[in-house]
Amino acid sequence: MGATLKDIAEKSGYSVTTVSRALSGYDDVNEQTRQHIISVANSLGYEPNLPARHLRGLSTQTIGMVIPANDQTFSAHDFFSQLLTGVGDAASRERYDLLISTQIPGEEEMAAYRRMVRGNRVDGMVLARTRQHDPRIAYLQEQGHPFVVSGRSAPGEPNDYPFIDVDSQAGLRILTEFLIELGHRRIGLILPPEDIAYTDYRHNGYREGLAHGGLEYQADYVVYGDLLRSGGYRGAQRLLDTHPLLTAIIACNDLMALGTMSAIQGRGLQVGPDVAVAGFDDIPAAEYAHPALTTIQQPIYEIGQRLVHMLLAIVRGEDLPESQILLQPKLVVRASSGPKLT
């Protein structure tokens, strides 16, 4: 086995990133440093790994991510934080850097993708929270740029890219059936925005759960939120203003579920005994809410790690044993769903 960039880095005293950029001809490495690194590489018999470069021509030893620029969305306890930690930890172990850009979804976000790709700033991209007819995926496919995704396309759209996802349709079906088994017959639902790819999956799972429990779907029991606590609060207020006899509300992510709990408690009602609440994700805040939140668990941190391993296999030209992974959801029962109704 020939010398690696890590071997050269250790012997030369420079980082893997500096070694990679020096050997790739980047002009931000001074000539003296470059010549020293080349000399070390030659002494070790280093040969460039062409399969690892064939898609890009140059290696940056960097992975890119673009996350929503919204102070309320990105916190220490939400989905993106957990995913980013998993991606960052796995990248670090592979001696890769992580380039993060926070952008408002839309043209500013797409401009960030173009800068990363056209400027050859990253070897590959990790995407999250897919949207209907997602322009990010279309652009990266058009450019032939390596990428992996946390999430599938919306129902009916092609899944012609590598992804890891949790079956959220099954997750909402499980939650709905669980609440029905507790005795609930009037169950509200707060969905994500309509353009999010998994919105229809979760809506379909709710419908399936109702049908399995012998309950009729009622469109006015369903509202849309914005995936933030504030959206869950407003959604729960609308549902309870219109249907004060609802005994349970499912929010399609934990942040909205926490907002839902605040709305219920603000009316002088108890979460659990008076109105059951359930969420989706099992972020750290769910376990420590008051009361603790019943939710569907998805291993967000582990997904982030696995996405990095998939991406680097693609970058290196290696075969992927699995390029599309659909994980099964896990129900986590806590106090917010309350006792079985009599």
Average pLDDT level: 90
Backbone CA Rg: 23 Å
Task: Quickly name the level 1 CATH class of the largest domain.
Answer: Alpha Beta
The poorly predicted ranges are 49-56
What global shape is seen?
elongated
Strand content: 15-25%
Write the layout of secondary structure elements.
Elements: H1 5-12, H2 16-24, H3 31-43, H4 50-53, E1 62-68, H5 79-93, E2 97-103, H6 107-118, E3 124-128, H7 135-143, E4 147-150, E5 163-166, H8 168-181, E6 187-191, H9 199-212, E7 222-224, H10 229-242, E8 248-251, H11 254-266, E9 276-281, H12 284-287, E10 294-297, H13 300-315, E11 324-327, E12 330-332
Parallel strand pairs: 1-2, 1-3, 3-4, 4-5, 5-11, 6-7, 6-8, 8-9, 9-10
Antiparallel strand pairs: 10-12
Helix pairs in contact: 1-2, 1-3, 5-13, 8-9, 10-11
Word description of this protein:
The protein has 13 helices and twelve strands. With 342 residues, the protein is an alpha/beta fold. The chain folds into three domains: 44 residues, lambda repressor-like DNA-binding domains (434 Repressor (Amino-terminal Domain), Orthogonal Bundle), CATH 1.10.260.40; 132 residues, Response regulator (Rossmann fold); 139 residues, Rossmann fold. The strands form two sheets. Strands 2-1-3-4-5-11 form a six-stranded parallel beta sheet, with helices on both faces. The protein has a six-stranded mixed beta sheet with strand order 7-6-8-9-10-12, sandwiched between helices. β9, α12 and β10 form a beta-alpha-beta unit. α1 crosses α2, α1 crosses α3 and α5 packs across α13. The protein is elongated and about 80 Å long. 43% of the residues are buried.
